[in-house]
Amino acid sequence: MLIIGCDFHPSFQQNAMREQESGEYVEKRLGHRAEAEAFYRSLAGQEVRVGMEACGYYPWFERQFRPSRRAVTGAPGSHPFCGP
Predict the structure, then answer these.
(1) What is the pLDDT of residue 25?
(2) 81 belongs to a structural domain
(3) Which of 2, 27, 33, 73 is 20 to 30 Å from 20 at the Cα level?
(4) If 0-12 CB within 10 Å is exposed, 13-18 middle and 19+ buried, where does residue 12 land?
(5) Which CATH number belongs to the domain containing residue 69 in this structure?
């Protein structure tokens, strides 16, 4: 399972990702909306759990995962941690 922690900023998203089985850890900065949408579409078919900070963007974020029914977890006021 891929675990993603996402922090929203006005002009970008900062993601921290960990592959649960291998332990691989990656940080990724998504610079604009089209880049973010392409990234989330690329996860189709994978088991993914996402935690996010800044719930004001929650409806947009949830729409990215709705077709695949992946788990999306809001964490208002705290940054989700999936780092080493």
Answers:
(1) 95
(2) no
(3) 33
(4) middle
(5) 3.30.420
| Structure-token pair, residue 33 | 């909306």
> Which pLDDT value is given to residue 71?
55
* Number of separate domains in the chain: 1
Q: Is residue 83 assigned to a domain?
A: no
Encoded tokens for 78: 């705290």
> From CA 64, how far away is CA 71, in angstroms rounded?
11
Find, among 24, 35, 66, the residue nearest to 4 by Cα.
24
pLDDT of 77 higher than 80: no
Q: pLDDT (tens digit, 9 = 90+) per residue, 22-48?
A: 999 999 999 888 898 899 889 888 888
The answer to whether position 80 is within a domain reads: no
Alpha-carbon distance of 81 to 71, in angstroms, equals 16
